[in-house]
Amino acid sequence: MIKHWRLILLLVTVLGAIFAIGLKAYPYGREGVEVLYVSAQSPAKNIIQEGMIITSVNGMGFSDAEQWRDLTADLEDKVTLVANLKEYEVDIGNSTSLGIEVMDIEKNNLDFGLDLRGGTRIILEPEDKNTSASMIEQVMGTLQTRANLYGLREIKFSSIQGTDGYFIQVEAAGIGRQVVEDLLSSQGKFEARITKPVELEDSVGEFQLGSDMYNVETSGNGIIINGTSIEENGTFTLEGMDFRYINRTEDALIFLADVLDGDDVEIVFSDPQHSGLVPLQGGGYRFYFTIQISSEGAQKFAEVTAGVPRYIDINSGDEYLKDTEILLYLDGDIVSTLRISAELQGQAISTPQITGYREDKEGAVDEKLRLQTVLRSGALPTKLETASVDVISPTLGAGFLSSAVYAAVLAAAVVMVIIFIRYRKIKVAVPLVLTGLSEVIIILGIASTNDSGIWLTVLAINILVLGLALWKKQEIDIYAWVGAILIPLLGMMTWTIDLAAIGGIIAAIGTGMDQLIVISDETLTGVERKVYTVKEKIKRAFFIIFGAASTTIAAMLPLMFLGIGLVRGFAITTIVGVLIGLLITRPAYARVVENAAGE
User: Fold this and answer.
1) pLDDT tens-digit series, residues 145-158
2) Whole-model pTM?
3) Residue 77 class from Cβ within 10 Å (0-12 exposed, 13-18 middle, 19+ buried)?
4) Are residues 74 and 56 in the same domain?
């Protein structure tokens, strides 16, 4: 039996793909719905989270999103929800709905795209009602940049003109409220300010800015600086820099200097040398990353920190600038507060570090990525507010899939009949169609999620099969080893199955069918001018196949690495399909044809 090791490799890979697609864990049961979005106005906000599986409403179970909508249509007072097998009580009060958008639980491990599974449609409304069409285009460009940097897949932005002005429509396969509020609708206005103390002696002090000195003295609740009276929380400008008088301590005045804004941020580093995560002994995680600022911003830092008194931290023994901190703001909220080392006093620092803290590792990673994304993309020209949220129906996608299955069955039947008429061998026609079907299954299996264990098992079995074949002195070429190892390793990948990916599957199967026919024709008909053995005929066929496959892969590689969105998904699926056919399915089919030719 081991002499048919190519067929065994194909069978093992197909079985692995089937398990990868269908072997799905249901920790909360197969019945219920998945939470897609929780609105900011929902009474369940901060109680129910996106991604939870809800299986019961007021003690009543349900199986899908349609039954959920029926059960939640007329709720009032307190509602009991069972989500992730835990019971939660939500007081809806005067709310007209729970404000929770849901979708059916996926019954397989395939990550279907927006067109096939459905998703979320969010309408963002500019705060400025007079926002022009050109500004809306600028906003969408910034949002697309944020989505790409953040790694959001299957997201589309489009503008809508209504009676009250322009709106931005966001369609995604599934994004949570926090992503919408903190990333997409966040304006992203960045500011860095530095607190600056001025020591007093007999209610008089000297405000040092670089090498320049300005007299300052107290006057009631305010101050007089450079001959100008400033009340508490009042602002003034010196040498083109804005300051705010904050308060007065026993022996000092505290000012706040505007040092940086978003235009000063030139580079946001994300490499391991300049960014990372540090677990803290007391619990939680500190994240950090470095930014590069303009020379003008660095010079402002030097001028503001000049002349500030120093002190030694008794806990660490390090020396810092007294009562001086860098306060980093995003949309008016402080995101980071940093002490300034004494050795940086009066220095033009061009690469300051931004730090933050979160209680859990996932939260720290997400917050670091969010801040880096917003700083890289820049600020939006206007603030955005969430106007509405609803769920996109997957009806069209489901209809497309049904049509695709029917078309595939019909095409397979037609191909089988034609091949049978051509070669008069049912042992050639049926395997040809089954080989094409196996390629589809393997492609989908590789694209599946949460399947690493399955593909590692396939890899181990493949190596065992080839080892036994070598032990039995079977002829094994290098391509067999490459296929037996590479294809299971590709199974560690995952990508979205959308219309573009289906197009890639069709392209891969189309070229595959052509090559299977080439194998059949070369093997079963031969060449008139010279008599070839069956093995020589198969080698001639594979010479043609390798040339065609190499051309296809070479054409797709630039799209895979340089393309985005639909183009990239098409390229990945096509390349994976070609590799599967070249290394696994077509050699196995050649073995079948070789047996048929010998009969």
Assistant:
1) 888 777 776 688 88
2) 0.66
3) exposed
4) yes
